[in-house]
Design brief:
The chain is α+β, with helices and mostly antiparallel strands and about 250 residues long. It contains 8 helices and 9 strands. It folds into 2 domains: about 1-85, NE0471 N-terminal domain-like (2-Layer Sandwich), CATH 3.30.2020; about 100-235, Clavaminate synthase-like (Double-stranded beta-helix, 4-Layer Sandwich), CATH 3.60.130.10. About 25% of the residues lie in helices and about 15% in strands. It binds zinc ion (ZN). The site of zinc ion has 6 residues, from loops.
Length: about 250
Protein backbone atom coordinates (compact mmCIF):
# COMPACT_ATOMS: atom_id res chain seq x y z
CA UNK A 1 0.00 0.00 0.00
CA UNK A 2 1.31 3.46 -0.93
CA UNK A 3 0.52 6.18 1.60
CA UNK A 4 0.64 9.81 0.48
CA UNK A 5 0.44 12.68 2.93
CA UNK A 6 -0.98 15.91 1.51
CA UNK A 7 -0.19 19.50 2.50
CA UNK A 8 -3.39 19.68 4.59
CA UNK A 9 -2.16 16.77 6.72
CA UNK A 10 -4.64 14.21 5.33
CA UNK A 11 -3.34 10.84 4.16
CA UNK A 12 -4.52 8.84 1.15
CA UNK A 13 -3.97 5.11 0.60
CA UNK A 14 -3.34 3.44 -2.75
CA UNK A 15 -3.07 -0.38 -2.91
CA UNK A 16 -0.22 -1.48 -5.20
CA UNK A 17 -2.56 -3.52 -7.38
CA UNK A 18 -4.69 -0.39 -7.87
CA UNK A 19 -1.59 1.62 -8.88
CA UNK A 20 -0.52 -1.02 -11.40
CA UNK A 21 -4.07 -1.26 -12.75
CA UNK A 22 -4.28 2.53 -13.09
CA UNK A 23 -0.84 3.02 -14.61
CA UNK A 24 -0.75 6.16 -16.72
CA UNK A 25 2.17 5.21 -19.02
CA UNK A 26 1.52 5.30 -22.77
CA UNK A 27 1.49 1.49 -22.97
CA UNK A 28 -1.23 1.16 -20.32
CA UNK A 29 -3.31 4.31 -20.82
CA UNK A 30 -4.77 6.05 -23.86
CA UNK A 31 -4.57 9.77 -23.03
CA UNK A 32 -7.01 11.06 -25.69
CA UNK A 33 -9.84 8.75 -24.70
CA UNK A 34 -8.72 8.71 -21.05
CA UNK A 35 -9.18 4.94 -21.08
CA UNK A 36 -7.19 2.00 -19.81
CA UNK A 37 -5.48 -0.08 -22.52
CA UNK A 38 -4.02 -2.62 -20.09
CA UNK A 39 -6.39 -5.52 -19.49
CA UNK A 40 -7.57 -6.32 -15.99
CA UNK A 41 -7.24 -10.01 -16.88
CA UNK A 42 -3.45 -9.52 -17.22
CA UNK A 43 -3.14 -7.96 -13.79
CA UNK A 44 -1.13 -9.66 -11.04
CA UNK A 45 -3.23 -8.92 -7.97
CA UNK A 46 -0.29 -9.70 -5.64
CA UNK A 47 2.08 -7.29 -7.35
CA UNK A 48 4.61 -5.40 -5.18
CA UNK A 49 6.87 -2.59 -6.44
CA UNK A 50 10.68 -2.76 -6.48
CA UNK A 51 10.94 0.91 -5.65
CA UNK A 52 9.04 4.20 -5.40
CA UNK A 53 10.51 7.63 -6.17
CA UNK A 54 8.91 10.98 -5.47
CA UNK A 55 10.11 14.12 -7.29
CA UNK A 56 11.63 16.87 -5.14
CA UNK A 57 8.64 19.17 -5.67
CA UNK A 58 6.20 16.34 -4.83
CA UNK A 59 4.45 16.69 -8.20
CA UNK A 60 5.32 13.19 -9.49
CA UNK A 61 5.47 9.67 -8.13
CA UNK A 62 7.19 6.91 -10.10
CA UNK A 63 6.48 3.27 -9.24
CA UNK A 64 9.09 0.75 -10.43
CA UNK A 65 7.76 -2.78 -10.90
CA UNK A 66 9.73 -6.09 -10.89
CA UNK A 67 9.32 -6.56 -14.69
CA UNK A 68 11.03 -3.17 -15.27
CA UNK A 69 7.71 -1.50 -16.03
CA UNK A 70 7.57 2.09 -14.80
CA UNK A 71 4.29 3.73 -13.75
CA UNK A 72 4.56 7.53 -13.70
CA UNK A 73 1.84 9.35 -11.74
CA UNK A 74 1.11 13.04 -11.32
CA UNK A 75 0.26 13.45 -7.64
CA UNK A 76 -2.52 15.88 -8.63
CA UNK A 77 -4.19 12.99 -10.48
CA UNK A 78 -3.78 10.70 -7.44
CA UNK A 79 -5.35 13.40 -5.30
CA UNK A 80 -8.30 13.76 -7.68
CA UNK A 81 -9.10 10.05 -7.60
CA UNK A 82 -8.44 9.32 -3.90
CA UNK A 83 -10.87 6.88 -2.37
CA UNK A 84 -14.29 8.14 -1.41
CA UNK A 85 -13.91 7.69 2.35
CA UNK A 86 -11.01 10.15 2.24
CA UNK A 87 -12.90 12.83 0.32
CA UNK A 88 -14.74 15.44 2.41
CA UNK A 89 -18.48 14.85 2.24
CA UNK A 90 -20.32 17.14 -0.13
CA UNK A 91 -22.59 19.71 1.35
CA UNK A 92 -25.78 17.63 1.02
CA UNK A 93 -28.56 19.27 2.97
CA UNK A 94 -31.63 17.48 4.25
CA UNK A 95 -34.67 19.55 5.04
CA UNK A 96 -38.09 19.73 6.62
CA UNK A 97 -40.76 22.41 6.64
CA UNK A 98 -38.17 25.09 7.54
CA UNK A 99 -37.22 25.04 3.84
CA UNK A 100 -40.38 27.05 3.14
CA UNK A 101 -38.52 30.11 4.42
CA UNK A 102 -35.20 29.23 2.74
CA UNK A 103 -36.16 27.64 -0.57
CA UNK A 104 -33.39 28.42 -3.09
CA UNK A 105 -35.14 30.71 -5.58
CA UNK A 106 -33.93 31.93 -8.98
CA UNK A 107 -35.27 33.82 -11.96
CA UNK A 108 -35.80 31.78 -15.15
CA UNK A 109 -34.26 34.41 -17.42
CA UNK A 110 -31.15 34.75 -15.25
CA UNK A 111 -30.54 31.01 -15.34
CA UNK A 112 -30.85 31.06 -19.13
CA UNK A 113 -28.33 33.88 -19.58
CA UNK A 114 -25.97 34.11 -16.61
CA UNK A 115 -23.34 31.39 -16.11
CA UNK A 116 -22.74 32.27 -12.44
CA UNK A 117 -26.46 32.14 -11.62
CA UNK A 118 -26.67 28.83 -13.48
CA UNK A 119 -23.83 27.44 -11.36
CA UNK A 120 -25.51 28.63 -8.14
CA UNK A 121 -28.76 27.05 -9.27
CA UNK A 122 -27.09 23.72 -10.07
CA UNK A 123 -25.20 23.68 -6.78
CA UNK A 124 -28.41 24.29 -4.83
CA UNK A 125 -30.15 21.61 -6.85
CA UNK A 126 -27.32 19.20 -5.98
CA UNK A 127 -27.25 20.09 -2.27
CA UNK A 128 -30.95 20.63 -1.52
CA UNK A 129 -32.66 18.69 -4.31
CA UNK A 130 -35.42 21.28 -4.74
CA UNK A 131 -35.31 24.80 -6.15
CA UNK A 132 -37.86 27.33 -7.35
CA UNK A 133 -37.53 29.12 -10.69
CA UNK A 134 -39.74 32.15 -11.07
CA UNK A 135 -41.11 34.12 -13.99
CA UNK A 136 -40.76 31.61 -16.81
CA UNK A 137 -43.12 32.63 -19.63
CA UNK A 138 -46.55 31.07 -19.03
CA UNK A 139 -46.56 29.00 -22.22
CA UNK A 140 -45.33 25.55 -23.24
CA UNK A 141 -41.79 24.99 -24.56
CA UNK A 142 -39.80 26.42 -21.67
CA UNK A 143 -39.20 23.14 -19.86
CA UNK A 144 -37.27 21.91 -22.90
CA UNK A 145 -35.30 25.18 -23.06
CA UNK A 146 -34.29 24.90 -19.42
CA UNK A 147 -33.36 21.22 -19.75
CA UNK A 148 -31.33 21.96 -22.90
CA UNK A 149 -29.41 24.50 -20.85
CA UNK A 150 -28.41 22.02 -18.14
CA UNK A 151 -28.65 18.51 -19.54
CA UNK A 152 -30.92 16.58 -21.90
CA UNK A 153 -34.43 15.19 -21.78
CA UNK A 154 -34.97 11.55 -20.93
CA UNK A 155 -38.00 9.77 -22.30
CA UNK A 156 -40.53 7.94 -20.11
CA UNK A 157 -43.73 6.08 -20.93
CA UNK A 158 -45.36 9.54 -20.91
CA UNK A 159 -43.02 10.87 -23.62
CA UNK A 160 -40.33 13.53 -23.18
CA UNK A 161 -42.66 16.23 -21.90
CA UNK A 162 -46.28 15.85 -21.06
CA UNK A 163 -49.04 18.23 -20.20
CA UNK A 164 -50.97 17.58 -17.03
CA UNK A 165 -54.36 19.17 -16.85
CA UNK A 166 -57.69 18.31 -15.41
CA UNK A 167 -59.80 16.78 -18.18
CA UNK A 168 -62.31 14.08 -19.00
CA UNK A 169 -61.48 10.61 -20.40
CA UNK A 170 -58.16 10.22 -18.62
CA UNK A 171 -56.02 7.22 -17.68
CA UNK A 172 -54.07 8.58 -14.71
CA UNK A 173 -55.19 10.27 -11.52
CA UNK A 174 -52.75 13.10 -12.29
CA UNK A 175 -55.20 14.33 -14.95
CA UNK A 176 -58.04 14.72 -12.48
CA UNK A 177 -58.80 17.43 -9.95
CA UNK A 178 -58.12 14.96 -7.11
CA UNK A 179 -55.41 15.79 -4.65
CA UNK A 180 -52.33 13.57 -5.04
CA UNK A 181 -50.51 12.51 -1.90
CA UNK A 182 -46.74 12.71 -1.61
CA UNK A 183 -45.21 10.25 -4.06
CA UNK A 184 -42.10 9.51 -6.09
CA UNK A 185 -42.62 9.39 -9.86
CA UNK A 186 -41.65 6.22 -11.72
CA UNK A 187 -39.56 4.67 -8.91
CA UNK A 188 -39.87 1.24 -10.55
CA UNK A 189 -37.92 2.27 -13.67
CA UNK A 190 -34.43 0.93 -14.33
CA UNK A 191 -33.63 4.61 -14.87
CA UNK A 192 -35.90 6.57 -12.55
CA UNK A 193 -35.99 10.28 -13.35
CA UNK A 194 -33.01 12.07 -11.77
CA UNK A 195 -34.66 15.44 -11.98
CA UNK A 196 -38.27 16.46 -12.56
CA UNK A 197 -39.05 19.87 -14.01
CA UNK A 198 -42.57 21.08 -13.31
CA UNK A 199 -43.74 24.20 -15.07
CA UNK A 200 -47.02 25.65 -13.82
CA UNK A 201 -48.58 27.45 -16.78
CA UNK A 202 -52.00 28.05 -15.35
CA UNK A 203 -52.81 27.89 -11.66
CA UNK A 204 -56.28 26.56 -10.89
CA UNK A 205 -58.64 28.84 -9.00
CA UNK A 206 -58.94 26.35 -6.14
CA UNK A 207 -56.09 24.10 -5.01
CA UNK A 208 -53.23 23.22 -7.33
CA UNK A 209 -50.51 23.64 -4.71
CA UNK A 210 -47.37 21.57 -5.09
CA UNK A 211 -46.23 19.76 -1.94
CA UNK A 212 -42.72 18.37 -1.56
CA UNK A 213 -40.88 16.36 1.09
CA UNK A 214 -37.27 15.26 1.45
CA UNK A 215 -37.43 11.48 1.02
CA UNK A 216 -33.90 10.98 2.38
CA UNK A 217 -34.67 12.87 5.57
CA UNK A 218 -37.93 10.97 5.97
CA UNK A 219 -36.23 7.60 5.44
CA UNK A 220 -33.44 8.37 7.93
CA UNK A 221 -35.96 9.60 10.49
CA UNK A 222 -38.01 6.43 10.10
CA UNK A 223 -34.85 4.30 10.38
CA UNK A 224 -34.10 5.95 13.71
CA UNK A 225 -37.62 5.99 15.15
CA UNK A 226 -38.94 2.69 13.83
CA UNK A 227 -36.13 0.47 12.48
CA UNK A 228 -38.53 -2.43 11.98
CA UNK A 229 -40.80 -0.40 9.70
CA UNK A 230 -37.74 0.89 7.80
CA UNK A 231 -36.55 -2.69 7.34
CA UNK A 232 -39.93 -3.79 5.95
CA UNK A 233 -40.26 -0.83 3.61
CA UNK A 234 -36.70 -1.09 2.28
CA UNK A 235 -36.54 -4.90 1.91
CA UNK A 236 -40.01 -6.05 0.91
CA UNK A 237 -40.32 -6.60 -2.82
CA UNK A 238 -43.46 -5.16 -4.38
CA UNK A 239 -44.97 -5.36 -7.82
CA UNK A 240 -45.70 -2.04 -9.50
CA UNK A 241 -47.88 -1.41 -12.50
CA UNK A 242 -48.92 1.67 -14.38
CA UNK A 243 -52.34 0.84 -15.78
CA UNK A 244 -55.31 2.82 -16.98
CA UNK A 245 -57.86 2.98 -19.76
CA UNK A 246 -56.20 2.71 -23.18
CA UNK A 247 -56.06 6.16 -24.75
CA UNK A 248 -56.19 6.98 -28.46
CA UNK A 249 -52.70 7.82 -29.77
CA UNK A 250 -51.95 11.53 -29.81
CA UNK A 251 -54.46 12.39 -27.11
CA UNK A 252 -51.83 14.20 -25.06
CA UNK A 253 -49.53 17.02 -26.01
ZN1 LIG B 1 2.14 1.25 -17.64
Amino acid sequence: MLLLEWNDGTVSRYPFVWLRDNCRCRACWHPDTESRIALTADLNVDIQPNGITVSDDGAKVDIHWPDNHLSPFATSMLHDVRFEDEVPKKNIRMWGSELLEQLPTFQFNEIMKDETKLLNFLEDLRDVGLTLLQNAPAETGHVAKLVDRISYLKITSHGYIHTIKSMAGINNLAYTGHKLGLHTDLPHYRFPPDLLVLHCIQQSKIGGESIFADGFKTALQLKEEDPEAFEILSNTHCDFMDKGVLMPVGEFG
